[in-house]
Amino acid sequence: MFSKEESKRLRQEFWICFGKSFPRKWLLYNTKLKGLSFKFYFDNKKALVALDLEDDLENRIKYWEKLLALKSILLEEYLPEAIFEEEYFLENHKEISRVYVPLEQKVSIHNKNSWRNVMEFFNEKMALFEAFFEEYKDIIEG
Predict the structure, then answer these.
(1) DSSP state of 20
(2) CA pair distance 25, 7, nearest whole angstrom
(3) What are the tens digits of pLDDT across the range 80-115?
(4) Do 51 and 36 meet the contact criterion of CB atoms below 8 Å apart?
(5) End-to-end alpha-carbon separation of the chain, Å?
(6) In terms of Cα–Cα distance, which of 14, 39, 141, 33 is closest to 90?
(7) CB of 97 within 8 A of CB of 87?
(8) Is the distance from CB of 66 to CB of 142 less than 8 angstroms?
(9) Residue 60, beta-bridge partner list
(10) Of 10, 103, 138, 141, which residue is 20 to 30 A from 63 by alpha carbon distance?
(11) Claim: this prediction has a pTM higher than 0.90
């Protein structure tokens, strides 16, 4: 078991190591589309990369419909393992729409032995997600 302080330190250490290992400016919140953002997620049970729709329901529906229209392209040309969830609930019970790719192995941010795999996974999958977004941003934006 880790104390809150130890857990926080390990999380910070992971993200610093990730930034140093893969020095790149990620798109993340800078999509220029309100409510649409990319996320890295890593905790003591799982890791994933995600495209989240968190705006008001009207905007979420608009972007979701565009993403569904592009689903076959995303799955066939970029991320065949992507999962589409129109109703996804965050830990704080907030409902969003999410397209995400989970790392299919047990990992923990508290286990440094899993960090390299997660970093490589993040780098590879987020680069593909961003490439898809850049290619189809105009369609998603409408």
Answers:
(1) H
(2) 26
(3) 999 999 999 998 999 999 999 999 999 999 999 999
(4) yes
(5) 48
(6) 39
(7) yes
(8) yes
(9) none
(10) 103
(11) yes
> Position of tokens 């705006």?
55
3-state percent helix, strand, coil for the chain, nearest multiple of 5:
50, 20, 30
Integer CA distances (angstroms), 7 to 82, 122, 142, in order = 29, 20, 42
List CB contacts of 2: < 8 A, sequence separation 6 or more.
10, 110
Q: How far is CA 66 from the centre of its chain?
A: 18
- Classified as helix, coil or strand, 100 is strand
Let me know if 12 is exposed, middle or buried by CB neighbors in 10 A (0-12, 13-18, 19+).
Answer: exposed
Token couple for 61: 């529906």
